[in-house]
Amino acid sequence: QVQLVESGGGSVQAGGSLKLSCAASTYTYRSYCMGWFRQAQGKEREGVATIDSAGHVLYSDSAKGRFTISKDDALSLQMSDLKPEDTAIYTCAIRNYGLLCAASLSSTYFGSWGQGTQVTVSS
User: Fold this and answer.
1) In the predicted model, what is the mean pLDDT of the chain?
2) Cβ–Cβ < 8 Å for 77, 20
């Protein structure tokens, strides 16, 4: 089990920016998929963005053009032009194969999850 710890959440006004980070404990996956998911109060969890070990990325329609996922030492999500509807708990996750990572935002088969970080956007 990979340990994941998110940071960088907070409260911003609409139009503002935040950068989330997800630090992972050591893993030896040759192929993997990492992603950011969010869950707003009273709503189901939804995929925001994914990135595989080859660097292929996928964004949700709401994230496209505003959010950027990247992976260096840590997984990051740069969020710009934030809107009140982006308010949610954001959680990072990883699975140990990259197949279809850039084709689907489904949370199925992600075996390790962080605790989440709250993002609140006020109007």
Assistant:
1) 95
2) yes
In this prediction, residue 28 carries a pLDDT of 79
Three-point CA angle 120, 16, 64, nearest 5°: 90
CA distance 15 to 76: 19
Q: Which residues pair with 68 in a beta bridge?
A: 78
The DSSP result for the chain, as a single string, is ---EEEE--EEEETT--EEEEEEE-----SS-EEEEEEE-TTS--EEEEEEETT--EEE-TTTTTTEEEEESSSEEEEE-S--GGG-EEEEEEEES--TTTTT----TT--EE---EEEEEE-
Residue 117 has pLDDT above 90, yes or no: yes
Residue 91 tokens, joined: 């959680």
What residue type is 27 in one-letter code? Y
Q: 10: which residues sit within 8 A by CB, 6+ positions away?
A: 18, 118, 119, 120
Quote the CA–CA distance of 88 and 117 in Å, as a whole number: 8
Give me the mean pLDDT over the 32-47 stretch: 97
